[in-house]
Amino acid sequence: MMWVGLSIAHRAKAVQRMTALDRWTADDGEMSVTQAAADAGVGVTRFYEMGKAWRARRSLASLGTFASAPKSRVGKHDGAIRRKVGRVVAADPRASVRKLAIDLHNALGIPADEGPPSHNTLRRYVEEELRRREREASPGVELWLDCCACRLTPRDDVLSVAFVVLDRATQLVLGADLGDVDDSRSGYRGAARDALRRLDEGHFARLPWVSGLARAQIVVGDDEDDWKSLKKGLSANLGAGIELSTRSGRFGRYLRPATGLRIGTVVFAPNRTGEAITTGDDRPPLALNDRRARLAVEVDDYDARLLDEIDLVDEASRPPSNLLRFLERLATG
Prior knowledge:
Distance between the termini: 40 Å
Number of domains: 3
CATH architecture of the largest domain: 2-Layer Sandwich
Mean pLDDT: 85
CATH class of the largest domain: Alpha Beta
Protein name: Transposase
Structural class: alpha/beta
Radius of gyration: 22 Å
Shape: globular
Organism: Qipengyuania spongiae
CATH topology of the largest domain: Nucleotidyltransferase, domain 5
Order of helices and strands: HHHHHHHEEEHEHEHEEHH
């Protein structure tokens, strides 16, 4: 089976297993099979079988990644909550998330002896509905550029720093890369190049793009002084406002409302941005290209799910020309 024939979930599983097998075989016995199997997400016996097949033929079939992806867990009140949450939010769209969660609890009217959903659970449904309503606005009006520490899987001990270009209206990730918070210009350069690649490949060709980018909000890393001159170059003859966020607590400020601080298996940790990359043990962190591949898989899956919820146009459309110029300047700045 060709790589392009795999689902997004199966691609992620394949990358995980290939990485574990390559590290195990390259370490000449220094890595234990128990650790390698854990990294691959399989049992020791299964890992031995997979390793034998991998040595005989390095192919996707050897990895056994074609099993169905695990389903998301759904609570017993999921249907009732989804039927109510849209009306609750529409009745008071400017209310706080806390108030809307309380209103949703009251609208559900589930008795205490029937195990009503917790307040935090209802908050998640409210936040999801608010994000859905935000996506109904036209794409391309405003870009959010954010950087934030992250773990590529919930159990990952390694901290990376993700740089992300988000479309505010749809909350789609146009581009993403990994980098260093001390050199955020370079991090966003990679994210902009990734965005241009995705746009060129037609990932977002059927979005109902607006005619022009109005503004871009950029969360700056720890290299604030380097952005002063760059801002002038980005803004020149662009016809759009460029705002830099340098306040304390800025990391993740746009990822939080757009993604809930999670893209697939990638978990964002704003308060840990700036910490050194750590593994928690003697293992070296994965190579940068391996980590980038994992991030790309999760972004592909995240965007695909959002695109399924967006009203797309029948014919391909182009993003605003000044949006493309902004990304091109950022990609070379």
